[in-house]
Amino acid sequence: MALVTSQNLPDFLHGWTVARSIPQDVIAGVKSGVFDLSGGVIRVAQGHDGAGRIIRHLIPVGEVGTPDVVLQHAARAMHFSGLNLAVSAVGFGIIHAKLTKLDDNLKALKDSVDGIARLLELDERAKLKSALKYLSMVMQEGSVDAREQQLLHGILNVFGPIKEKYQELLPESPTETAMACQEYFALTSLATAKCSAELGMVGAARRNLEDDFTFWARQARRIVERDFLGQHPERFMAGEFASDVPLSEVASWLNFVNDEKRSEEERINELRNKIHLSVGGDGSWIPWPPKEAKRTVEVDTEKNVPALRKLVACHGVLQGYVDQYSLLDENQMTPSEFQRKVEALDQKLVVDGYVILQPAPVSRQDSSRLDD
Question: First CA to last CA across the chain, in angstroms?
Answer without folding.
Answer: 39
